[in-house]
Amino acid sequence: MELLCIQSQEHDKLPLAELKAVIECEDMELDISKITEGLILLKDISDENSDKYYQTLVKRLGYTHEVDEVIFKSSIDDLERDILAIDWSRYISKNFAVRVKRFNSPIDTVAAERKTGSLILSKCDNIKVKLKKPDSLIRLIAYENTVYIAIEKFKLNKKHFEEIKPHKRPFFYPGSMSPKLARCMVNLSRVNSGDLVLDPFCGTGGILIEAGLIGCKVAGSDVNWKMKNGSAINLDYCGITDYRTFNVDVRELKMYEKVDSVVTDPPYGISTSTGDIEGDEIFNEFFHSIYDNMKDDAYLCMASPHYVDLNPMIEEVGFELVEQYGIKMHRSLTRIISVIRKKNV
Ligand SMILES: C[S@@+](CC[C@H](N)C(=O)[O-])C[C@H]1O[C@@H](n2cnc3c(N)ncnc32)[C@H](O)[C@@H]1O
């Protein structure tokens, strides 16, 4: 079985990095092939694993818009013949819609949707077209002259990332990152459901929410008690129950158990927001303090501004850098997302 992932193109590397991290930590046996930016093919999935992998991907991914199961690989020229050869009763029981997604392809979207719809209708009794919320969504994904005939069996909850934006939560404070980036960072930290994730600068809880929603236990701490309380309010609002929050300076942090991963967005720039720690020193203090709170081989995914060189600090404390990505925020600020691992000594 093959799955096609249609990904966000808001960043050139993060969506694929997130997908690879999930495949790695979920121990998925498959081959990844990038067709073009925003379109990734997952191949060689056994029938036994197919639904399990599919459901895991739609539950976890932030920067992927849609996952579809490939029914047949066709071409613009052979599309009509191949559509007619498919036994559609296996895929459609009541109603359906056909939607075309193009990647650098000359396919005529409207004509292909109409033609495919009428060919399918001509082959099946007792089904009809339903354009809004169909039971079966048939996807034609065209890359150049190739057309993948696919079906969306499980939907990603795209609405979640809109509905949970920082200003829509009961406790709001400026500076929280987008839920999609928070989800991506949780995934880059290679955690699985049931693992314990820590955010020692939890603020309003944006990262903890995303970790909680994929089934992790979460712990958050913040030097500011209002933030600690606000995080709890937001976690309750999202229905997350397996959490603990603490009001503690990162330098004093001593966890009740070692954590499986740390995902965080430390404060930078303004000394008043760092609990009296001067400028970039917050990063150094953070690395030293967090090290003993992490299990061996645990991952840390963090954001930082481009002008802070984390590398010497990472080395000195006993971490190693795994991957790093830049997100341009504006002309004078690039946010760096670093994936770091605690070395097993
Ligand atoms: C950039 S915000 C985190 C935003 C968070 N990801 C969210 O979704 O709201 C940084 C947080 O670090 C906290 N903080 C600053 N200095 C700290 C320190 N020394 N120890 C622990 N927390 C600190 C601030 O109170 C602030 O809430």
Automatic annotation (TrEMBL):
- Under Enzyme Commission nomenclature, its number is 2.1.1.213
UniProt catalytic activity: guanosine(10) in tRNA + 2 S-adenosyl-L-methionine = N(2)-dimethylguanosine(10) in tRNA + 2 S-adenosyl-L-homocysteine + 2 H(+)
Does this entry carry the keyword Cell wall biogenesis/degradation? no
According to the entry, every stretch annotated as the THUMP domain falls at: 51-153
Matching InterPro entries, A to Z?
DNA_methylase_N6_adenine_CS, RlmKL-like_Mtase, RlmKL-like_Mtase_CS, SAM-dependent_MTases_sf, THUMP_dom, TrmG10
> Where, subcellularly, is it found?
Cytoplasm
Respond yes or no to whether keyword Manganese is given for this record.
no
**Which keywords does this chain's UniProt record carry?**
Cytoplasm, Methyltransferase, RNA-binding, S-adenosyl-L-methionine, Transferase, tRNA processing, tRNA-binding
- Could you give a single Gene Ontology term from the biological process aspect? tRNA methylation
A single GO cellular-component term from the record reads: cytoplasm
Give the enzyme's main class according to its UniProt record, as a single word: transferase
Question: GO molecular function, one example?
Answer: tRNA (guanine(10)-N2)-methyltransferase activity
A matching Pfam family: THUMP
The annotated subunit structure for this chain is: Monomer.
Q: Provide the function of this protein.
A: Catalyzes the adenosylmethionine-dependent methylation of the exocyclic amino group (N(2)) of guanosine at position 10 of various tRNAs. Acts via a two-step process that leads to the formation of either N(2)-monomethyl (m(2)G) or N(2)-dimethylguanosine (m(2)(2)G).
Name the family: Belongs to the methyltransferase superfamily. Trm-G10 family.
Q: What is this protein called?
A: tRNA (guanine(10)-N(2))-dimethyltransferase
Taxonomic lineage? Archaea, Methanobacteriati, Methanobacteriota, Methanomada group, Methanobacteria
